[in-house]
C-alpha cells in the first residue's frame, strides 16, 4: 500500500486530508508538528509522499522539507501554506519541494496532485533490470537504471523531478523547449500549478551541474520562450 506523511498542526485540516487519502487507498502517517513527523518517518517510513504545512510549531515546514529531502531524493513533497507570497513558493520549491498549494485548497485537487506526483516519482522504477539505458550528452551521462546523472566521473544526485527534466533535455538536445512543454512533459497534462515551478527547478539544476551557475553553459535560457540543453 502506498504511504503518505501528513504534517499539519490544525487537527480538523489534518484529519480531513487523512480521511480522504485513506478513502483513496493510502496508508497515512499523521503528525501535528515537524518533530513528530520526522520521528514517524524514521520509525514507520519510507513514504511515497509527504504533505507539509509551512506554519508549524517548532520546526517549520520549510526546515522539515529540507530535512526530509536530505535523506530521501525520491519522496514526493507538497508544501501547504496560508501564505500566497511568491517568495514563499520559490523558497519551498528551491529547498526540495515538488509542488506548492495555498490555503484554502480543494481536497480533491490535493489528492489529484499527490497522485500525479507519485506517478512521476515512480516512473521508471519498475523497468526490467536488463533494459539498461544510458543517455549520453557530451561529458554528461544520464543513467536511467540508477537514476543518477554523471558529469564526467562525478555522480550528481537529483530529485525525481530534476531527473525527469534532464531526461527531457537529453531526448531533445539542442532544441529550445518552451516552459509549457517542460511542464507538461514532467508534471503531466492538466497540471494545476504555476509554470514558474519550471524556472525554480532549472535554477536548482544549474546549482548542481554548472561550473558557474550564474553563467550557465549547459542549461541555456531562451529569452521569452524557455530553455535549451547544450552539452
Quick take:
The chain has helices at 11-23, 34-44, 61-71, 86-94, 107-122, 160-170, 179-187, 196-209, and strands at residues 3-7, 27-31, 49-53, 76-81, 99-102, 134-137, 140-143, 148-151, 154-156, 177-178, 219-222, 226-229.
What value does the average pLDDT take?
A: 87
Query: Biggest sheet, in brief?
Result: 5 strands, parallel
- Unreliable sequence segments: 126-130
- Return Rg in Å: 18 Å
The total strand number stands at 12
End-to-end C-alpha gap: 41 Å
Lateral strand order in the biggest sheet: 2-1-3-4-5
Report the order of strands and helices.
Answer: EHEHEHEHEHEEEEHEHHEE
Q: Based on Cα principal axes, name the global outline.
A: globular
Structural class: alpha/beta
Strand content: 15-25%
Q: Percent helix among the residues?
A: 40-55%
How many separate helices? Answer: 8
Amino acid at each position: 500500500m502506498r504511504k503518505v506523511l501528513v504534517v499539519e498542526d490544525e487537527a480538523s485540516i489534518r484529519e480531513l486530508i487523512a480521511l480522504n487519502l485513506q478513502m483513496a487507498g493510502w496508508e497515512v502517517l499523521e503528525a501535528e508538528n515537524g518533530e513528530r513527523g520526522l520521528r514517524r518517518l524514521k520509525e514507520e517510513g519510507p513514504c511515497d509522499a509527504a504533505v507539509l504545512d509551512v506554519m508549524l510549531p517548532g520546526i517549520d515546514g520549510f526546515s522539515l522539507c529540507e530535512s526530509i529531502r536530505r535523506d530521501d531524493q525520491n519522496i514526493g513533497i507538497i508544501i501547504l501554506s496560508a501564505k500566497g507570497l511568491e517568495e514563499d513558493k520559490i523558497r519551498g520549491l528551491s529547498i526540495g519541494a515538488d509542488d506548492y498549494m495555498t490555503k484554502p485548497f480543494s481536497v480533491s485537487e490535493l489528492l489529484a496532485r499527490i497522485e500525479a506526483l507519485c506517478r512521476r516519482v515512480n516512473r521508471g522504477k519498475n523497468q526490467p533490470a536488463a533494459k539498461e539505458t544510458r543517455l549520453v550528452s557530451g561529458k554528461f551521462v544520464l543513467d536511467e537504471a540508477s537514476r543518477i546523472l554523471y558529469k564526467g566521473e562525478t555522480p550528481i544526485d537529483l530529485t525525481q523531478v530534476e531527473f525527469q527534466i534532464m531526461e527531457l533535455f537529453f531526448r531533445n538536445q539542442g532544441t529550445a523547449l518552451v516552459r509549457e512543454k517542460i511542464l507538461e512533459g514532467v508534471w503531466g497534462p492538466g497540471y494545476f500549478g504555476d509554470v514558474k515551478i519550471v524556472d525554480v527547478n532549472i535554477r536548482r539544476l544549474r546549482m548542481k551541474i554548472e561550473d558557474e551557475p550564474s553563467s550557465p553553459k549547459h542549461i541555456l535560457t531562451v529569452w521569452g520562450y524557455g530553455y535549451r540543453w547544450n552539452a
